[in-house]
Amino acid sequence: GEGPATEPVLCTTDQDVPSPPAGIKAVASGPRSLIVSWLPPSNHHGRLTRYTVYWDTVGSRAGEQSRRIQPNVNHFTLHNLKQTTYEIWVTASTKMGEGHVSEKA
């Protein structure tokens, strides 16, 4: 027959970098501004510490720009943009570091 049950053992895994945020969207909110929104990563792999929104002009050598966003926010407005085409992507971070890059919008 069955013997007595053992005491439960509680285990926790270490944190890791999160998967990429999903559902990246960029919508014009004026002639020189865009609202960027995203969904949380499907796997946080720990507690999110921030998002980072990156943007760069297509075909330019000016270099990407970025802004860190608090982990409880899922949108950001880019202001004072040039009238050109932009690529925008987002990452999520935990205390273990920055996760993988989202799809580009």
What is the gist of this entry?
It is built from no helices and seven strands. It has 105 residues and is mostly beta strands.
Would you mind describing this structure in some detail?
This protein has 105 residues and is mainly beta. The chain has no helices and 7 strands. It has strands at residues 22-30, 33-39, 50-57, 65-69, 75-78, 86-94, 97-98. Strands 4-3-6-7 form a 4-stranded antiparallel β-sheet, with no helix packed on it. Strands 1-2-5 form a 3-stranded antiparallel β-sheet, with no helix packed on it. The mean pLDDT is 92.
Keywords:
105 residues; mainly beta; four-stranded antiparallel β-sheet; 7 strands; elongated; FN3_sf
Topology (SSEs and partners):
Blueprint: E1 22-30, E2 33-39, E3 50-57, E4 65-69, E5 75-78, E6 86-94, E7 97-98
Antiparallel strand pairs: 1-2, 2-5, 3-4, 3-6, 6-7
**Residue runs with pLDDT of under 50 for 5 or more positions:** none
Distance between the termini: 61 Å
Give the helices and strands as they follow along the chain.
EEEEEEE
Give Rg in angstroms: 19 Å
The total of helices stands at 0
The fraction of residues in strands falls at 35-45%
The side-by-side strand order for the widest beta sheet comes to 4-3-6-7
Average pLDDT for all residues:
92
Shape descriptor reads elongated
- Assembly type of the chains comes to single chain
Largest sheet: 4 strands, antiparallel
